[in-house]
Amino acid sequence: MTRLGIIGSGSIGAGLASLASAAGHDVRIANSRGPESLAGLVAELGPGVQAATVEEAAAFGDLTILAVPLSAYGSLPIQELSGRTVLSTGNYYPSRDGRIPELDSLDLTTAEYESTVLPGAVIVKAFNNIVAHHIPSLARPAEAQDRSGMAVFGDSTEAKQLVAQVIGDLGFDAVDCGPLAESWRTEPESGAYTLVYAADSEGFSSDYTADPGAPVPADRLRELVAASTRAKVAEREF
Ligand SMILES: NC(=O)c1ccc[n+]([C@@H]2O[C@H](COP(=O)([O-])OP(=O)(O)OC[C@H]3O[C@@H](n4cnc5c(N)ncnc54)[C@H](OP(=O)(O)O)[C@@H]3O)[C@@H](O)[C@H]2O)c1
C-alpha cells in the first residue's frame, strides 16, 4: 500500500483517487474549498480515501499528485512539497492560466516551469496527455492484454520508479520517456497529446466526451512520443 496525497479533486484528481482507492492505496485528497466540501466525494470513493487540507495532502505519505490548474501551483505549500516526489498532471492553457513568457517562448517545458515554481519538489510528469474520462475507461488490471502505456518524464530515476509503480497499480504501463526537458512531447498541441488515446484518432468526434478511448500499448506509445512534434504556444489559438 502506498500513501498518496492528491491536491485537486476535479476530473483528474477524483479519477486518480478512485483508481488508487480500488488498488488499495491510502489516499488523502484536497481541494481549494477545504475538507468539508469533499464529504460527498470521499463517501463515494470509499474508506481508502479521506478528505484533507492542501497542507495535509502535500505532506502525506510517499507521493503527492497535483491535479490543479497551472495557475494554482504558485499557491501550493512549497515547504511541505520540498524533497517529495510530486506527480504533476498539469498543463499550460493560457486562456485559463494567463500568459507565461517562459512557456510561450519554449525556453522551458511546463514541467520544468513547475519545478521553478515549486523549488525542492521532485517533479515527475504523467497523466497530462490523457483526457479525464479516458483514465477510468482505459485502466486495466496488471494481467490484461490490452493495457495502455502512460508516458513518464522526470530527472530523478528513483522518483520515476515510484511513480511507475503507482501508475502500474492504477492500471497503466509506465513508459519512461526521458527527462523533464523532453516533456514537451506530451504537452497540448504536441504530437502525443490526448488524441493518442481517442478511438476517433483522426480528429475530435463531434462529442468527444462520448469517445470511449482505445488502448495504446506501451511500445506504440513510446513510438508516438518519440515522433512527437512541438508547437509554439504563442502561435496556438485558444
Ligand atoms: N480534464 C482533463 O481531461 C485533463 C487531462 C489532462 C491533464 N489535465 C490537467 O490536470 C489539471 C487538473 O485538471 P482538472 O480537469 O482535473 O481540473 P478541474 O476539474 O477544474 O479541477 C481542479 C481542481 O483543482 C482544485 N484547485 C484549484 N486551485 C487550487 C488551489 N489553489 N489549491 C488546491 N486546490 C485547488 C479545485 O478545487 P475546487 O474544487 O475547490 O475548486 C479542483 O478540485 C490541470 O492542470 C489540467 O490542465 C486535465
From TrEMBL:
Pfam families: F420_oxidored. Keywords: Oxidoreductase. One of its GO terms (molecular function) is oxidoreductase activity. It comes from the Bacteria. Residues 3-91 form the Pyrroline-5-carboxylate reductase catalytic N-terminal domain. This is NADP oxidoreductase. It comes from Brachybacterium phenoliresistens.
